[in-house]
Amino acid sequence: MKVLAYGDILNQGNSVFAAVAYADGDMLLLALRGVIRIENPYLYLQPFIDELSAKLAEISIAKVELDFTKLRFCNSNGFYVIMDIVEAIYRLSSGPVTIRRLDDDDWHQETLPILVDIASEEVSARTRFESQLEA
Amino acid sequence: MSELKQSHDTELTLQWRITHLGNVMGDLSSLVAKPAAELVGAFYPPRLAKRVNSVITELVNNAVENAPTAEASVGVELHLDAERLHVTVSSDCTPEQFRVVKEHVERIHSASSAIDLLRQTLAERRRTKLSGGIGLIRLVAENKFHLDISYDSTVLAVHCWLELGGLS
């Protein structure tokens, strides 16, 4: 697997959130870990979004897995960042998208589908949710 | 009755008051929300602890981001028992700020679907590059909190509560 893009959020020198996008052949795996709590997450994550978009424009992705199961908290300021990341991936890839999320978590069950824009027919047709209990 | 009612006789009451918000050097919402959520999680199921994390984070963030002066203060009160979770966050607020919050809360209360309102508001604010305005909707749409506000000409109190029997 090859790392396409990496971004993180630091709090007092410690990484509290990390986003990593890997390519494995024609498959893209995006893993989000930690918490988004800061007032303006774009300060840290806009470079990640730009780099990911640029890399995806250069390669062909036919299958996507988005893993949110290690994202433990996201404040409302982080919603737009998630929307931007997901939108770029859907726009710059083709094929099915599997979204891994937590079963017993309000954000994962109620808000994440909105941020993914599951109401869109195009998104809905490509998307399958897989829920799991928190480890 | 959900699992949240299982043998939960423990009552928790927490109260903070912090003045001079302009002096803060860390993420205040995190510093308050995390220990509260951990304490709740020691007695109640994780899903309720996560809701405590969400409500304190969003309301304290609002208080800090909208503090009218560096000397402004914020108060957080949490009470939890087997029947109900109630969180109130009080903060200094100008009459102009209160009018905006009041209109926002009225919009939430008049919405036929909080989830649809969250979807519409996210789309609008993302398109117009406006920040904020999502936290209160999120608490109602995502976390199923009841919401009300009160104002005494200088201090805004935001009340959020949850009947534990209504959790699924």
- Taken as a percent bin, the fraction of beta residues of chain A is 35-45%
Helix share, percent of chain B:
40-55%
Number of helices of chain A: 4
Q: What oligomeric arrangement do these chains adopt? A: heterodimer
Describe the structure.
Chain A has 135 residues and is α/β, with parallel strands linked by helices. Chain A has helices at 42-58, 79-91, 106-116, 121-126, and strands at residues 2-11, 14-24, 27-36, 63-74, 97-102, 127-132. Chain A starts with a strand and ends with a strand. Chain B has 168 residues and is an alpha+beta fold. Chain B is built from five helices and five strands. In chain B, strands 1-2-3-5-4 form a five-stranded antiparallel sheet. In chain B, helix 1 (28-41) packs antiparallel against helix 2 and helix 4 (114-127) packs antiparallel against helix 5 (135-141). Chain B starts with 11 loop residues before the first strand and ends in a 5-residue tail after the last strand. Chain A binds chain B through residues 11-12, 37-40, 73, 75-77, 79-80, 83, 104-107, 110-111, 114-115, 119, 134, and chain B through 26-27, 29-30, 46-47, 50-51, 53-54, 57-58, 61, 65, 115, 118-119, 122, 125-126, 131-132, 134-135, 138, 141-144.
